[in-house]
From TrEMBL, chain A:
Organism: Sinocyclocheilus anshuiensis
GO cellular component: plasma membrane
Compositional bias annotation for Basic residues: 18-34
Transmembrane residue ranges: 109-131, 151-170, 182-203, 218-240
Topology relative to the membrane: Multi-pass membrane protein
Upper taxonomic lineage: Eukaryota, Metazoa, Chordata, Craniata, Vertebrata
Official protein name in the record: Vang-like protein
TrEMBL record, chain B:
Signal peptide: none
Molecular function terms, GO-annotated: protein kinase binding
Gene that produces this protein: LOC107680510
Record bears the keyword rRNA-binding: no
Top-level taxon of origin: Eukaryota
SMART domains linked: PDZ
Gene3D superfamilies reported for this sequence: 2.30.42.10
Protein name: Tax1-binding protein 3
One of the Pfam families matching this protein, by short name: PDZ
GO cellular component terms listed in the entry, alphabetical order: adherens junction; basolateral plasma membrane; cytoplasm; nucleus; postsynaptic density; postsynaptic membrane
Lineage: Eukaryota, Metazoa, Chordata, Craniata, Vertebrata
Length: 529, 125
């Protein structure tokens, strides 16, 4: 995992009614970064904000071509908890969203307010330590000598470095909304708070009450506070960023509908953080979920048990025998199905062979059509552009000009491979214009249609699953362990994740002297005497 | 005959006396040898143990003095005229067999069937 794209600060919220309110983070100006979030919304896992949206949003998620034209405008507000432990069905969950979306905002504002307050307190405390003596007992204060003024510079620069470091670590737009609090962050915030409070306590009792005249000592005290804050920031980096870099577990992620599997190596993370990493990689690694591909197996399974009916010859028995009858009925069906001469494997084989043939034929026609279409266009050179003869087109018009000649072949191919719902005509033309602009060959243009790419490749309205549920037996803030299994469920399918520990590798050394490579000939002579 | 490194080789041997045939300027015995401590024992076709580096008879020419004297293909030569043949190089073995001033070579050879025959005859008693 690269270090730049790791966690941003302030997006981990507690579960709706369960978590505590402690989310102190070093953040500021959430309002300023809110506008940045809308542009980054493709990376964060969010749900639409307005209360009326979720019902409509659920339908569009189900994959129909719903008018999602105002998609860009409605997702500016980040509501956050889009990953949460499942406890009820989908509908009930959505309706809970309706109730809680209002309460959620209040909680978020509370978090933001707390973290801003903590940040301000932390950053202004050293300055307060330095200024208060001048305000309260300026006459009794010993003059600040050279060494003391040197310490002012050091305080200033350290505060600047602290400010920059806090900005770098914590001022990042949120990637995802987690169900429970981020334990490390909460611990760090508590630590900082206690630390600052204890410093204030000491300051209040020993310096303010006694009105100490030694200003140099006070300045040194402020410097020690800033030093300690920098060390806490170092601790924050180690706990939040560095600890999870070294790979420790290997996670195997399988999609439940079609078995697509990937493996990821992660460090020591909590389950919810691991879930976020997996989901980010899901969009780039897994081929797009295509429900049309699953219908064939479903019809086959339906056929297996069809045609078997169970008749109860002995007549209805007593009530206590009813359960026994049901059980014996199902056993009888299984036995009969096993004995029956099933030729469905034959059907499957020939059907698949036929399908392959058809796909290959259509593909050949498509490739030829596209190559021919591309020959109609040629790029105009700079000099020729000046002598602007008529009929000069920009990429979009050029795409529209050659599109009709390949449209039919492409349409037929997409229909055969059951991809037609993934590409709209508009998107195809856009892609064509893009390829023409960048001097791509027909093969490059076709690549996105011939192979099913990852979900990222398709338009944002195709990202059917953007609301995920984390289902786990262990607590989601607990760390990953060998054998942890959890599910990431979205409406259409779920991802099953199993964890395995990377084994401890014992590496031994063997030294080979370069002069030790010697060879002899193998002889077997035969002499006649 | 099993070979244990460092232990004396004990086996049943047969005495064979070959009279060399004069063919022009050469004295020929009529067989070919293979093996030796400088050779690769794993390519020896006749040895039981593929680490055996002894001198083996690989070919006996038909009607030659060796065949007449009773030498068979696959025999291992243990001694030639008193000279030991169990730990010699291929060339040393050849030299001991083709000494120009000797007309007769007396070999001690061993083969698997000798030991079986001895054991059988011992069992009969």
């Amino acid at each position: 995992m690269d270090t730049e794209s790791t966690y941003s600060g302030y997006s981990y919220y507690s579960g709706r009614s369960r978590g505590s309110h402690r989310h102190g983070e070093h953040s500021r100006d959430r309002h300023k970064s809110r506008s940045k979030e809308s542009s980054r919304s493709e990376k964060s896992v969010t749900i639409n904000a307005s209360p009326a949206e979720p019902l409509l949003g659920e339908q569009s998620v189900r994959g129909e071509e719903v008018q999602d034209d105002n998609w860009g405008e409605t997702t500016t507000a980040v509501t956050g908890t889009s990953e949460h432990s499942l406890s009820q069905e989908d509908i009930v969950r959505i309706s809970k969203d309706l109730d809680d979306s209002v309460g959620l905002d209040c909680k978020r504002y509370l978090n933001v307010a707390l973290s801003v307050i903590l940040g301000l307190v932390v950053l202004l405390t050293p300055l307060a330590f330095l200024i208060l003596p001048h305000l309260l007992w300026p006459d009794r204060l010993r003059a600040c000598g050279t060494a003391c003024e040197g310490l002012f510079i050091s305080v200033a620069f350290k505060l600047l470095i602290l400010l920059l470091a806090v900005w770098a670590l914590f001022f990042r737009p949120p990637r995802a909304g987690l169900p429970r609090i981020f334990v490390f962050r909460a611990l760090l915030a508590t630590l900082v708070l206690l630390f600052v409070l204890s410093y204030w306590l000491f300051y209040g009792i020993r310096i303010l009450d006694s009105q100490d005249e030694d200003y140099q000592g006070i300045v040194q005290y402020a410097v020690s506070l800033v030093d300690a804050l920098l060390f806490i920031h170092y601790l924050a980096i180690v706990l939040l960023e560095l600890r999870q870099l070294q790979p420790f577990f290997s996670l195997c992620v399988t999609r439940s509908t079609d078995g697509a599997t990937q493996h990821y190596n992660l460090g020591q993370l909590s389950i919810q953080r691991a879930a976020v990493v997996i989901l980010e990689n899901y969009y780039k690694d897994f081929p797009v979920h295509n429900p049309a591909m699953l219908t064939a197996s479903k019809s086959r399974t339906a056929k297996h048990l069809a045609g078997l009916k169970v008749y109860n010859v002995d007549g209805p028995g007593g009530n206590n025998a009813a359960a026994g009858i049901a059980q014996s009925q199902s056993r009888a069906m299984i036995a009969a199905a096993a004995r029956r001469r099933d030729s469905s494997h034959n059907e499957l084989y020939y059907e698949e062979a036929e399908h392959q043939r058809r796909v290959r034929k259509r593909r050949a026609r498509l490739v030829v059509a596209v190559e021919e279409a591309f020959t109609h266009i040629c790029r105009m050179q700079e000099e020729e552009q000046k002598k602007a003869s008529g009929d000069v087109m920009d990429p979009r018009e050029a795409a529209q000009a050659i599109f009709p000649s390949m449209a039919r072949a492409l349409q037929k191919y997409l229909r055969t491979t059951r991809q037609q719902h993934l590409h709209s005509m508009e998107s195809i033309q856009q892609h064509l214009a893009f390829c023409i602009t960048n001097n791509m060959t027909p093969k490059a243009f076709l690549e996105s249609y011939l192979t099913t790419g990852p979900t990222l490749q398709y338009g944002k309205d195709r990202w059917l699953a953007r609301q995920w549920t984390l289902i786990s037996e262990a607590s989601v803030t607990s760390g990953l362990k060998d054998g942890t299994i959890f599910l990431l469920k979205c409406i259409d399918f779920s991802l099953v994740v199993t964890t395995k520990k990377i084994p401890y590798i014992q590496l031994a050394e063997e030294f080979i002297d370069p002069k030790s490579h010697k060879f002899v000939l193998r002889l077997q002579s035969e002499t006649s005497v | 005959m099993s070979f244990m490194p460092g232990q004396p080789v004990s086996t049943v041997v047969q005495r064979i006396e070959i009279h060399k045939l004069r063919d022009g300027d050469n004295l020929i015995l009529g067989f070919s040898i293979g093996g030796g401590i400088d050779q690769d024992p794993s390519q020896n076709l006749f040895s039981e143990d593929k680490t055996d580096k002894g001198i083996y008879v690989t070919r006996v020419s038909k009607g030659g003095p060796a065949e007449v004297a009773g030498l068979r293909m696959g025999d291992r030569i243990m001694q030639v005229n008193g000279w030991d043949m169990t730990m010699v190089t291929h060339d040393q073995a050849r030299k001991k067999l083709t000494k120009k001033n000797e007309d007769v070579v007396r070999l001690l050879v061993t083969r698997k069937t000798l030991e079986d025959a001895v054991r059988q005859s011992m069992m009969q008693h």
